[in-house]
Amino acid sequence: MTDFTLDDHGRIILMRPETLAALHWIQENLMDGATWVAGSIVIDRNFLDEILIDLFRDDLTWATPTPTLH
Questions:
Q1: Helix (H/G/I), strand (E/B), else coil: 56
Q2: Backbone angles phi, psi at 2, to 5 degrees
Q3: Which of 7, 37, 49, 70 lies at a C-alpha separation of 20 to 30 Å from 43?
Q4: How many domains does the chain have?
């Protein structure tokens, strides 16, 4: 299991915490002005690389969901 699931929506990324460690990380690092949508933090694509570097440094993991064919 990964700590975060990243759902790519073009200009924005939805970053869903999947573990308690992930939720604590968000509370400590992203809560000021964070926008929540459907249980995920909304991330502007311009800030994604910096956030992923911080997650890596803090030994947290992430994955993108497998696309569902409709």
A1: helix
A2: -95, 160
A3: 70
A4: 1
Asked if the structure places residue 68 within a domain, the reply is no
For residue 36, CA distances in Å to 6, 17, 31, 33, 70 come to 14, 11, 10, 10, 26
Question: Stretch 5-17: mean pLDDT, rounded?
Answer: 93
Per DSSP, 3 falls in state S
Give a yes or no: residue 39 inside a domain. Answer: yes
Provide the pLDDT for residue 66.
62
- Strand ranges, E, within 1-70: 4-9, 12-17, 36-37, 40-44, 62-63
Task: Note the pLDDT tens digit of each residue in 22-43.
Answer: 999 999 998 788 899 999 999 9
**Residue among 60, 7, 8 nearest 29 (CA):** 60
Domain enclosing residue 42, as ranges: 4-63
Q: What is the pLDDT of residue 32?
A: 80
